[in-house]
Specification:
Chain lengths: 184, 33
């Protein structure tokens, strides 16, 4: 499949300077980014033909996740929960309104079915792979292989993110495709 | 992840999410924040 002709988005970035990230993102071939948990000043100037959206990363105990998702689901922003243990992941995917469960550490058929029922996408954080080395990187690759196996079975929508905190963390779409081939 | 899945994961899925949030949400070139 050709990379050309598609519009690419990175849905998980945390830039200090969103305008600079937008300029670099556009140069790399992205059409838009999601900036997590930042209110931009109205004076911020973004490049033309490039969209910057706001994302909210919900961080809470498993018992509070449902309430937090319900609180923000009508905000119009992209809602993301960074995955973790099974209890947290379960609370997240069982709540309608969540957009992305990012890199769940414990994922299984039951959670995949719930994610499918509630249209929750499963995110793969490639920035994590790039930043880690040795055994830690192998462990994350193994987690990603398990996640994609369950995601395929239930035809879940997948998301690739760079988790970029600066322009130097950003990767071009072709590089992201190449890295993603490492886990199945 | 296959190349096809990876391209979809950076293009089709994000667009689906944006469309789901609101029909008026996608305004290319206009910052929404």
């Amino acid at each position: 499949m050709s990379l050309f002709g598609s519009k690419f988005y990175d849905f998980y970035t945390h830039p200090d300077d969103a305008a600079l990230m937008a300029i670099e993102g556009k140069r790399f071939g992205y059409s838009g980014i999601v900036v997590i948990d930042q209110d931009q000043s109205e004076k911020t100037i973004f490049p033309g033909d490039f969209s910057v959206y706001r994302g909210i990363e919900i961080q809470a105990k498993p018992s509070r996740i449902r309430e937090e998702i319900k609180k923000y689901r009508d905000s119009g922003h992209i809602l993301i929960v960074k995955g973790g243990e099974e209890e947290l992941n379960r609370a997240a995917v069982e709540t309608e309104g969540l957009d992305i469960l990012l890199h769940p550490l414990e994922f299984n058929n039951v959670l995949a079915k719930a994610a499918s029922d509630n249209s929750v996408s499963i995110g793969f954080n490639l920035g994590l792979l790039i930043g880690l080395q040795g055994v830690a990187r192998v462990r994350e690759l193994k987690t990603m292989r398990i996640n994609i196996k369950h995601a395929r079975k239930y035809k879940l929508q997948l998301i690739l993110t760079s988790d970029a905190h600066s322009i130097y963390d950003l990767r071009a779409p072709k590089e992201m495709v190449a890295i993603s081939s490492l886990f199945g | 992840m296959t190349e096809h899945e990876a391209v979809d994961a950076m293009s089709a899925t994000p667009l689906n999410i944006l469309r789901r949030k609101s029909p008026d949400y996608i305004q290319e070139g206009i910052e929404i924040i």
